[in-house]
Amino acid sequence: MNTRRAIDAKSTNDVANPNERQDKRNLMGIERFDPKDPDDRERMRVFLSPQQVDHQIRQAIQFCWMALPDEKRSVEEVEKQIRRIVDRALRDLRDDAASFAVGGE
After folding, report:
1. Spatial contact of 31 and 47, defined as CB atoms under 8 Å apart
2. Is 11 a member of any domain?
3. Predicted local distance difference test score (pLDDT) of residue 88
4. Number of domains in the chain
5. Is residue 3 part of a domain?
6. Considering only CA atoms, which of 16, 10, 2, 15 is closest in space to residue 30?
7. Domain range spanning residue 96?
8. Sign of dihedral through CA atoms 12, 17, 20, 23?
9. Which of 17, 24, 61, 91 has its CA 20 to 30 A from that of 72?
10. Is 37 or 94 the better-scoring residue by pLDDT?
């Protein structure tokens, strides 16, 4: 096994010695996609499922709550800040799509 494969094996929890195997619950969700594989686009879509998006949004909400100063920490303030950030991100997405002529615009 070459060094690169050994590193890859450990990072994907696919090691020769089962005693070295880490608990999969402690690993980040990392998936490798080969640009030459025609099925990878579908695999990526499945990997980035609606549940993954939901999880990321909930993490952002939790982080926003924790980042707010104590005197501003309320559901209303978190909602206000999350909406502000999402609105800005969507506006930037539209601007970028128009600037780079992508996304059907």
Report:
1. yes
2. no
3. 98
4. 1
5. no
6. 10
7. 38-102
8. positive
9. 91
10. 94
Top pLDDT among 103 and 51 is at: 51
In a domain, 63, yes or no: yes
Domain contains 72: yes
3-state secondary structure 10-72: HHCCCCCCHHHCCCHHHCCCCCCCCCCCCCHHHHHHHHCCHHHHHHHHHHHHHHHHHHCCHHH
Cα–Cα distance measured from residue 80 to residue 21, given in angstroms and rounded to the nearest whole number: 44
Q: Is the pTM of this model over 0.85?
A: no
* HSE-CB of 18 using CA atoms within 13 angstroms: 0
Residue with structure tokens 């800005």? 88
13-31 per-position pLDDT tens digit: 455 555 555 555 555 566 6
Cβ atoms of 15 and 21 closer than 8 Å: yes
User: What average pLDDT does range 81-103 have in this prediction?
Assistant: 93
φ, ψ for residue 53, nearest 5 deg? -65, -45
Amino acid 85 reads: I
